[in-house]
Design goal:
The chain has 3 domains: 46 residues, no CATH class; 43 residues, no CATH class; 223 residues, TIM Barrel. By secondary structure, it is an alpha/beta fold. Strands 2-1-3-4-5-6 form a 6-stranded mixed sheet, covered by helices on one side. The N terminus is likely disordered. A hairpin with a 5-residue loop joins β1 and β2. It has 12 helices and 6 strands. 50% of the residues lie in helices and 10% in strands.
Length: 325
Amino acid sequence: MARFDLYRSPLIVAAYRHLLLSPRRVLRLLGLAIVSLSFIGRSARQWGSTRQLLTLAALLVAACEAALFTRPLLLLAAAVAAAAALVLAVAVLPDDETGHRGGAEGFYGELCENTVEAAAALLQREAAEGPLPHFPYLEFDVQETADGELAVFHDSLLTRSFPTPRGSHNAAVAAQLEAATGIPFRLLTVQDLTLAQLQSLQLGGRAGLKAPSLQQFLDACEAAGAKRTLAIEVKQMLTDAARRRFIDVVGAYRERSAARLGRDASALRHRCHWLGWAGVISFPHLFAASFGEYGSPEWHRWAVDFKARGIPVRACHCLWLSLIG
């Protein structure tokens, strides 16, 4: 089923099905450890060269030896040094609190996350008030639907975004979707639904509020006069057609933005230099699942296409790390 395509390997599929979904806490923890180690391994591969990987392995071994054999004081010093290095690495990153998930968080405030309405309201507010703090870019999430369309949506599962109280619009639609897919609503994912089916549900249970497509979201940003960088986070893409469309749509937006804002001094001053007018971000293991493991022929093919359109692809929380070499 589509919900397991993210993990790809039979080991991780089995861990997800038989451990992470187990009613027993010990088995769930074991499954989480296996999946986490797999993701860490995939992420580490994004660093590239064998020398770097060997260096990381040596540091890991040294850390384990320190934990087992050194005096507590030395272990404490190593822990402090590691924490300081992590803080310094994170300190150079921009604080994206204002523009995170399209300018809203959750589904119970005035605006809902990853919606056209939230993004437009934020961009219009900045146009009226001037540059806003903690706003290096407008970030939002994209993943592929069952019919190969690109939806702006954060979660894989639907339950957090679409409450289904008895007698509500969403409850009726959820019953229809369960009948159509044969999957309980609590287990349905974006990849199980077409874009039309996804948009038949009401975000936060609010009439008329739906998950936009990528093109709808970008069009709304342009209509609102966006002068900020867009950070487009890849969650999951499963088909070459969707990957190609994603690159074409993002590339076209970058070209239009360059023509529209290239002489705007204020926009140029606030543009995120790691991403330009619009860039792609992703957690390394999610990018690997969508565009190929680092160094693979599949990865090389898509990396060339991203570069040809001038689209930067950076690691979430580590924007200085390129995922396309």
